[in-house]
Amino acid sequence: MIEKKVKIGNLYDFYGELLTDKQKDIVELFCLQDFTFGEISEELSVSRQAVFDTMKRVESILENYEKKLGLYAKFTQSKAYVKALLAEVETLRTSDVVQSDPTVAETVESIFQLTQKVLE
Amino acid sequence: MIEKKVKIGNLYDFYGELLTDKQKDIVELFCLQDFTFGEISEELSVSRQAVFDTMKRVESILENYEKKLGLYAKFTQSKAYVKALLAEVETLRTSDVVQSDPTVAETVESIFQLTQKVLE
């Protein structure tokens, strides 16, 4: 259940704006505020079944967008490379060889800053 | 007109799979194969007006997706940072200081490879 919540939350970050306001309200309570279906039902004055049905529908909609566009997978792969890159840059930053030369140290610092920006 | 073609082509790379097959055929002839509306009309045996109307509609659909999701803008910004990063890494790679230390040179090479992968 937690895995499903995380998966829906991740896809929602990408494609959430294509959902209706009602669907968005329910996903946000479920994924971001960690409400149970029962709590969402009370909060929004709708039946527990309606919450369940909406979440099923939302999951299918979001998965369908990802199946067609694959942008979440693409961004996730890219982010993994950038994180690996950041780890290497951090090693360079603390290297005595790099620190011994102000020009090289400055270039490494610039690479570090740019890597951070990509990850923002 | 060329700018519009490039813009539609870029958005099509991101959101094209959300169009119908008929819309996709027309966009591909227009943006990728550089056909005129007249040529597309002959190729697909539809009226020139139908080609024009479809392209108008497609432009609006693709722009609406981008307005809601902003993934093309996000990706383009990220790519610009990574390109700037690559330029800095290429400077490092040819630096005598870096080349003088095999461990540092290897780390820089690894950063270079990862940067290339992000750009793929």
What does this structure look like?
- The structure is a homodimer of 120-residue chains.
- Chain A is mainly alpha-helical.
- Chain A folds into 2 domains: 2-69, Winged helix-like DNA-binding domain superfamily/Winged helix DNA-binding domain (Arc Repressor Mutant, subunit A, Orthogonal Bundle); 74-119.
- Chain A is 84% helix and 0% strand.
- Chain A has 7 helices and no strands.
- Chain A has helices at 2-15, 21-32, 37-44, 48-69, 71-93, 96-99, 102-119.
- In chain A, helix 5 runs antiparallel to helix 7 (102-119).
- The longest helix of chain A has 23 residues, at 71-93.
- The mean pLDDT of chain A is 95.
- The interface between A and B is medium-sized, with 33 and 33 residues.
Secondary structure blueprint with pairings:
2 copies of one chain form a homodimer.
Chain A: H1 2-15, H2 21-32, H3 37-44, H4 48-69, H5 71-93, H6 96-99, H7 102-119
Helix pairs in contact in A: 1-2, 1-4, 3-4, 5-7
